[in-house]
Specification:
643 residues; mainly alpha; Leucine-rich Repeat Variant; two-stranded antiparallel sheet; 72% helix; 1% strand; extended
């Protein structure tokens, strides 16, 4: 009976979870269970009423049969109830699918209506038809590979006919600006001039436009000198404001850097000197600051103050990387007092990496290093450190590093900096045209005319008066301390890659001067160099056939460079012993060395030997005199003269 009761309760719980439509079957089941319970318990109640303590077996069996029968009826009743519930769920799913299809359909309709409204809005805008047709032609013009010259010319003519007389109205739209740029790029001279004339009076506004600014640069790139001059005429008087404008600053910078001559650049820069130069109408005169201050010294304070305000504003606006600002900074520091120069130093020392890569900017950086104190130099080197190797590879930046090393007395710091930044790229830097000069400065100094041009030597020499007040160490002492710091690193790379370094003309210079000037044990490096020249010189791949290798080896054999002015070899303080080591290599292929590209090396070896050894060497050469006479090499002819 207890089991029957639990089943009845669970049935009620299940009934409560279902839809309200199924409440009646659940109620009927509950009533039936209750009536059956009463029927089962009635024999027990009758026994208790008569106070009978004995129940018959037949009554007990009847009660059990009744329980089983009622349980089966109860299960049948609930089984039917669950089937009906499943049917309802299926009906609900079908209804949900129908609603989903209806919602999808309504969403598509809404999207279509939205597109239609968008299309209608575009069509209602001015020049909508022109814009759509022009963009179709423009899309064809962009196909560079498949489009022939005649087809392009035809398309450009059609496109030009669509936009002419409306250029000023449509140029500031993002899509039509590109269309007009294409017309300028592929159009004829007459078409370009027509577009430029339509934009007359709007060039300043064009520079400020986020889309029109690209067309402004295109007009300078593809325009005629007349067009450029007219556009520049509109810029005059607005340069100071434009260089601080978010969009226009890049246009003015591109124009200044790429499309103007020196006279035009001076005309643009002079607006930084003050209001009176901004409204200056005559641009044919020389407006350089040198001439202005020379003719009007009373204007110095005003000019320098206005120039500094422009520089300071450009730095604040993030335009310090512009070449135009670098020119202004150079003019400022060239005429600045000590305090004015220090103001520029404090404003730019942590951003020095922004202007070391241009001609004007590098000169500013060099002067700043020269006037800076030890603390400021440390801050500047810290700012440069992430770009140290790249700066060394730059055509102007490497001179900034040379100046920094030549000024900074803290050689422990600079030596560690060179080791950390150069060690992993030493072979690449040694081969590089500009980066190798940083290493050669440490080895031989910037005064060496073989590696530094006259212009660069003059520029570095001009900094000496400035450095004299801020640097205490003797330049030679400073270089020797740097040499001791990076010498082991250079000798190690030569020991491991002598052949690779000697095979390149530029890096062979680093090899030679490292061996001649760096202090310490050079045995491993010298042996590596000698191994690079082993083998038969008759082989086309032998290093001796490269003229720079022949010269490098001859210099090492002589133990010093030839000084043309003094007409002698300037010997190294330390004897390398290359001649002794090379003598054995030459003896293995004596004829090939003496009758080929190695003849001058053989001569250099002979000059280093004592009289006894030289006679012995010449006796060996005499045995091959007939073969040597057949050679046309100049060095071989000199050997024959000695014989």
């Amino acid at each position: 009976m207890a089991i029957g009761k639990r089943k009845a309760d669970s049935g009620l719980k299940n009934g409560n979870k279902t839809n309200n439509k199924r409440s009646k079957p659940a109620d009927s089941v509950e009533l039936k269970v209750q009536s059956k319970k009463q029927a089962v318990t009635s024999p027990e109640e009758s026994l208790s009423e008569s106070d009978s303590h004995v129940s018959s077996d037949s009554e007990s069996e009847e009660a059990e049969d009744a329980d089983e029968k009622h349980e089966q009826e109860e299960e049948d009743e609930f089984a039917g109830f669950e089937d009906e519930d499943e049917i309802d769920n299926e009906e609900e799913e079908e209804e949900g699918e129908e609603k989903s299809e209806e919602s999808k359909k309504s969403s598509k309709d809404a999207h279509a209506n939205q597109k239609k409204l968008q299309k209608d809005r575009k069509a209602s805008k001015p020049f909508a038809d022109v814009s759509m047709k022009a963009k179709t032609l423009w899309d064809k013009l962009r196909q560079k590979g498949s489009l022939k010259a005649d087809e392009r010319k035809t398309l450009v003519s059609e496109l030009f006919d669509m936009i002419k007389s409306n250029v000023k109205q449509i140029v500031f739209k993002h899509d039509m600006s590109r269309v007009i740029q294409t017309c300028v790029k592929y159009g004829s001279k007459q078409q370009r001039e027509t577009i430029a004339s339509e934009l007359s009076g709007s060039f300043v506004e064009l520079c400020k436009s986020p889309y029109g600014k690209y067309l402004a640069v295109k007009l300078f790139k593809y325009g005629t000198p007349k067009m450029k001059e007219a556009a520049l005429g509109e810029l005059y008087g607005h340069v100071t404001k434009l260089i601080r404008h978010r969009e226009a600053a890049y246009v003015v910078e591109d124009i200044f850097r790429e499309y103007t001559n020196l006279h035009q650049q001076n005309a643009l820069i002079c607006e930084f000197y003050g209001p009176e130069f901004q409204v200056f109408k005559e641009r044919t005169q020389d407006m350089h600051i040198d001439k202005i201050l020379q003719e009007h010294p009373e204007k110095r304070a005003s000019v320098m103050n206005n120039l500094w305000k422009t520089i300071e504003g450009s730095i604040a606006k993030g335009s310090i990387g512009f070449t135009m600002v670098h020119r202004a900074m150079l003019e400022f520091i060239q005429h600045a007092s000590t305090n004015e120069a220090k103001d520029l130093l404090q404003s730019t020392k942590e951003q020095i990496y922004e202007f070391v890569h241009t001609r004007d900017g590098s000169q500013v950086a060099m002067k700043l290093f020269a006037i800076a104190n030890a603390k400021d130099r440390k801050a500047m080197l810290k700012a440069l450190r992430p770009y140290f190797a790249e700066t060394a590879k730059d055509s102007y930046g490497h001179l900034v590093l040379v100046t920094a090393l030549d000024c900074t007395d803290d050689t422990i710091m600079t030596g560690k900096l060179l080791q950390a930044e150069f060690e992993n790229e030493l072979i690449k830097l040694s081969v590089h045209k500009f980066a190798r000069r940083v290493l050669l400065y440490v080895l031989v100094g910037w005064e060496d005319a073989r590696y530094f041009s006259k212009e660069n030597r003059t520029m570095l020499a001009s900094l000496s008066p400035l450095k004299a007040t801020t640097s205490k160490k003797d330049p030679l002492v400073r270089r020797n301390e740097l040499k001791a710091a990076i010498g082991p690193m250079l000798l190690n790379v030569i020991s491991n890659a002598a052949g690779e370094l000697l095979a390149e003309s530029l890096s062979s210079q680093v090899v030679v001067d490292t061996l001649l000037t760096v202090p310490g044990d050079k045995t491993a490096a010298v042996n590596a160099v000698l191994r690079a020249f082993e083998g038969n010189p008759a082989d086309d791949t032998h290093l001796i056939h490269q003229i720079h290798c022949s010269r490098a080896l001859k210099t090492l054999v002589q133990n010093g460079h030839w000084n043309g002015a003094e007409k002698r070899v300037v010997k190294s303080e330390e004897e390398l012993g290359v001649a002794e080591g090379l003598k054995g290599i030459i003896n293995e292929h004596l004829v090939e060395w003496a009758a080929g590209d190695g003849a001058f090396v053989v001569l250099a070896v002979l000059e280093t030997l004592d009289e006894k050894e030289r006679k012995k060497f010449l006796d060996q050469l005499k045995k091959h005199q007939k073969t040597l006479k057949k050679s046309e090499f100049r060095g071989t002819q000199k050997l024959l003269e000695m014989l």
